[in-house]
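REQUEST ID: PR-0412
SUBMITTED BY: lab tech R.K.
PRIORITY: routine
TASK: structure prediction, single protein chain
INPUT:
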Amino acid sequence: MIDLVKLNDYKEAFDFFARQLAYPEKRSMQNLTMVGDVPPPVAQLLNTYREQMELLSMEEIEERYVQTFDFQRSTTLYMTYFKFEDSRERGNMLSALKAIYETFGLEMADSELPDYLPLMCEFLYAAEWVGQEKAELGVSTLLGVLEDGTYSLMNALEKIESPYFFLVKALRETFKCCLRKEALES
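STATUS: complete
OUTPUT:
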């Protein structure tokens, strides 16, 4: 089970992940340093990501982003695709994710699917779930989708030696830091 207070402590990290996983803009690429505290394993991964990205020009970053996330199924940023592809079950999960966002008062554009990784990170940054009655269930569902999707994504990124591997691994490590102690022991 997830510790919602710890998850809330890392809101700034989720904002950083959302910006770095969205299509690269000059502004987001100029500040590759995470603001706020993160655990040492996360900081180390983010430093490696930053170091590798700083070796690339803005044009190279844009090209690599498109080649990585837009043209390869194995590295899609749509988190339910890995498990469901285009099945009916995926449609059901997309509806469930949208309902979770709405439960916390967040509206999303009709042009975007609710399993888009930068959007999911943005939700974790923007939503106010501490003290909310349905927070545990909603956030657990969302994190389950993220766990499945980012695992497949991380492995695919590692195979192609992408700098984004370190970013996605850092995101996963951040989630791990938010598990309740009893969940880690079981």
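NOTES: The chain has a mean pLDDT of 89.
REVIEWED BY: pending
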